[in-house]
Write the structure tokens for this entry.
Amino acid sequence: MRIPAICLLAITTACSEPRAGPPPVVMRDSAGIRIVENASLELADSIAWVLDTANVVSIGELDGPDMYVFGQVAGVTRQNNGRIVVADRQAHQVRFFGPDGRFSHAVGRAGGGPGEYINVHYLLRHNADSLIVIDYEGGRINILDPEGKWVRSFRLEVKDGEQRPRNSSPTEWAVFDDGSLLISDHVGTCRSSRDDGAVCADSARFSRVTMTGQPITRYGILLYMRYQFLTSPKGLRINAAGWHPQASWSVQGARFYHADATSLAFNTFGSTGNLERITRTAYQRPPVRANVLAPSRPVADLTPQERDRQTDVDAGLANARRPDQAPAFAGLMVDRTGNVWLQEHPAGMSQPAVPRWFVFDTIGTLRASIRVPINLTRRPLYRWQGEIGDDYVLGVANDEGIEVVRLYPLIKRLNKMNE
């Protein structure tokens, strides 16, 4: 008789075959929106995907050739031929590496001319492996061919007739499969709300537009960010946004995904801007971990000026009204096959560990979990700097103070106990 793999590890508990979690309850409301209710995270505790750590591709060194030393990674992507592309903000460059991590070539330099960058905001993959580099200064969109050759630059002017606040301009976030752009216009709800300790929920108008600024789809005004404003003893203004539930968004194909971390849920919008599906999972937000406010860098690594500033910031944060519950998640991404990934928030974990990502399939069913030891998104606005393919995960790790780009093969096993 075959002994189930789970039995080999069972000592004091009853042995049983691995089982899937309870199925979701699916229904339609009167407006025709599909509601998917996942009963719990039980499935994520029994079925897991894993990363192949034996075959990881790692790019980045502390003391090595310049092309392998990153100042600040603004974005990474993998082209169809397996080549890895990295945008470095401090170097004002886009660097190309082979599938094995060996350097190929680099393009870009500091400046405001063709093929030059002032402040690389992030890197996006465009049609047929061409690239988009967003330069935050002036909101320039730079189009590069698959080899990195500069094609053109422009500043997006949205022709939708909307009256925008002074000094406001659209922010480009992502590229749909047809080459159109996801943009947001900051509504600025919190501009006049800056009382110490106040938490304000700001909004943005999300839209899909062509490269020439012609509107295609409007998704409406949605949560953009929650702010908590504080003042340190030395008068430094602090925004303690990281403690509070934030919004996160992504695109895939022709769909737009938006979520608010007050609950383990996300909304899926169709190509016409209609809300197609609301996906929810029963989840009780855990208490905020006591030491969640610890500085990310050891005090010994700080300069005297940085140490003084950190002490001032910590004193200001000590007066903050920290929420009782951690956000429901720390980021949302959609992989190239349409699975939605929500990241476990570190503030709610009982002790420091590698956070899990919960994976929902294309109809909203919770299918698996996976622990990912690299950063795929940047808080607090959850701008993504990595990507997830059908068989790989690509992101950035901080390895003893240096940024390292890592690509892990993704293994979609059925049950973490069955190996």
Remarks:
- Residues 102 and 418 are 35 Å apart (CA to CA).
- Residues 1-21 have pLDDT under 50 and may be disordered.
- The helical segments are 5-8, 42-46, 304-317.
